[in-house]
């Protein structure tokens, strides 16, 4: 792997072309730093949505062991709760805490070998190691967590479904969240039946756990991402740079550069940064560019790196046509995260 030293001053993401080995990819399969302390006890249940407490209870049972023993009359036999399936799918809109709960499963499950990664990371590992070697590495693991299971690429979905089937037969438990496939519209919600249909060969192995709620990132924020004037932008980027390192790129230059870097390596683009700066943001009209930018935003959010920008506010970076199209949920989730990072 090409290691980016912690920058002192201002750097340009367009100068970075990170290379990541299969071993590096495997070593990174842990929850993002912001979820280091994620536990079931720290998941803040919204009392207006009882499904959140129900999900927390079910997932605690999934991670730690069988549920409480049911008791009938004085002479009745003790009965345990029905055994859970080897996989759980967390079904809910963005911002309801699915990734927090996924990380809580990871931290709570007493397994010697367990892995946590995004769908993109797992498919990149299969590409780097080869299918057979990837299966051999993960086989027999106690837990595999898959955040943002992508359903946009039928080929990748098929490969992952096949691998998960082999891992379940080896005794591995699975936990997943998912993104929206093309043409699955909705206000940040993705229907579980669509996920199960796409992974039909594995659908019987997953128990759906529904999580309702509102986007927690927007509860304490004013409604829009912050766009800075040039002078304020220069000042803030300089302050972040002095504190440890900040990037400063023209928006168009970054968008072009993202096409040259595999999305699994986006996290390496931002290694060591205390802030990401973008000049001249404007609304995107090309879907491929927009989806690459979504993947980049996901990694910035995972790393909890503040963003500063000039031009069009980042919550307006996707066109109205995109927000009404088949990737609606991805764009809405990215807008939520962009809003949060410009306020951080």
Oligomer: single chain
Helix content: 25-40%
Instruction: Output mean pLDDT.
Output: 85
Largest sheet: 5 strands, parallel
Cα end-to-end separation: 30 Å
Structural class: alpha/beta
**Which strand order spans the largest sheet, edge to edge or round the barrel?**
5-6-7-4-8
What percent of residues are in strands? 15-25%
Q: Poorly predicted ranges (pLDDT <50, ≥5 residues)?
A: 1-7, 67-71, 180-190
Q: What's the gyration radius in Å?
A: 21 Å
Number of strands: 11
Number of helices: 13
Overall spatial form: globular
What's the SSE pattern?
EHHEEEHEHHEHEHEHEHHEHEHH
Structure description:
The chain has 344 residues and is of the alpha/beta class. The chain is built from 13 helices and 11 strands. The protein has helices at residues 22-27, 50-64, 98-108, 119-129, 131-138, 154-169, 192-198, 230-243, 251-258, 266-269, 287-302, 320-323, 328-343; strands at 10-11, 69-70, 79-80, 87-92, 114-118, 143-149, 173-178, 206-211, 246-250, 275-281, 307-311. The strands form 3 sheets. The chain has a 5-stranded parallel beta sheet, sandwiched between helices. Strands 1-9-10-11 form a 4-stranded parallel beta sheet. A two-stranded antiparallel sheet has the order 2-3. The longest helix is centred in the middle third of the chain and has 16 residues, at 154-169. The two termini are 30 Å apart. The model is unreliable at 1-7, 67-71 and 180-190 (pLDDT under 50).
């Amino acid at each position: 792997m090409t290691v980016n030293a912690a920058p002192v001053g201002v750097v340009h993401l367009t100068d970075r072309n990170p290379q990541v080995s299969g071993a590096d990819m495997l070593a990174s399969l842990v929850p993002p730093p912001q979820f280091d302390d994620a536990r079931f006890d720290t998941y803040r249940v919204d009392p207006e949505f009882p499904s959140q407490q129900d999900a927390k209870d079910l997932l605690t049972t999934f991670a730690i062991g069988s549920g409480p023993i049911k008791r009938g009359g004085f002479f009745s036999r003790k009965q345990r709760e029905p055994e859970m399936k080897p996989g759980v799918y967390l079904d809910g809109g963005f911002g309801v805490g699915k990734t927090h709960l996924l990380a809580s499963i990871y931290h709570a499950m007493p397994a010697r070998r367990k892995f946590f990664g995004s769908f993109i990371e797992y498919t990149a590992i299969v590409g780097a190691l080869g299918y057979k070697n990837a299966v051999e590495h993960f086989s027999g693991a106690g837990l595999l967590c898959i955040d943002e299971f992508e359903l946009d690429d039928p080929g990748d979905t098929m490969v992952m479904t096949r691998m998960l089937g082999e891992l379940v037969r080896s005794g591995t438990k699975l936990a997943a969240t998912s993104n929206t496939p093309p043409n699955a519209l909705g206000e940040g919600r993705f229907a579980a039946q669509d996920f199960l249909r796409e992974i039909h060969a594995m659908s019987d192995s997953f128990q759906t756990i529904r999580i309702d709620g509102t986007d927690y990132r927007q509860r304490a924020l004013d409604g829009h991402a912050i766009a800075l004037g040039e002078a304020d932008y220069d000042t803030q980027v300089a302050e972040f740079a002095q504190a440890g390192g900040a990037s400063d790129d023209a928006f168009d230059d970054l968008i072009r550069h993202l096409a040259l870097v595999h999305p699994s390596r986006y996290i390496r683009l931002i290694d060591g940064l205390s802030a990401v700066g973008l000049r001249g943001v404007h609304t995107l009209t090309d879907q491929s560019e927009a989806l690459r930018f979504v993947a980049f935003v996901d990694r910035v959010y995972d790393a909890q790196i503040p963003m500063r920008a000039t031009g069009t506010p980042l919550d307006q970076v996707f066109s109205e046509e995109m927000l009404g199209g088949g990737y609606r949920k991805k764009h809405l989730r990215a807008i939520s995260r962009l809003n949060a990072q410009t306020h951080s």
